[in-house]
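Feature request, filed as a ticket because there's no other form

It would be nice if the structure record came with a short human-readable summary line next to the tokens. Right now we just get the raw output. Example of a typical job, pasted below so the devs can see what we mean:
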Amino acid sequence: MDDPDPGTGAGDPHRDAAPGSPDDRRLSPGATAFLGLGISMGICLAVLVGGGVLVDGWLHCAPYGLVVGLALGIVVAGLMAVGTVKKYL
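Raw output as currently delivered:
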């Protein structure tokens, strides 16, 4: 039992794959950055739209809070996307 990772057996074809080879299944740093960006954008939109809905309920001014929250969410998510993409250009 010299295998430090008991989850990978000798029959695993990707066990000894060299980085950059076709058998390498790891995500590149750029892919993980854009995956994180997508998750961050989704959370940002959800929080700002949810905040707009709460403002609508609090001030009884529907749908203005929703529209403002959505607009702010799109602007902030767009700025996040531009900042991330600029790193890779």
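Something like this underneath would help us a lot:
The mean pLDDT is 84.
The chain has two helices and no strands.
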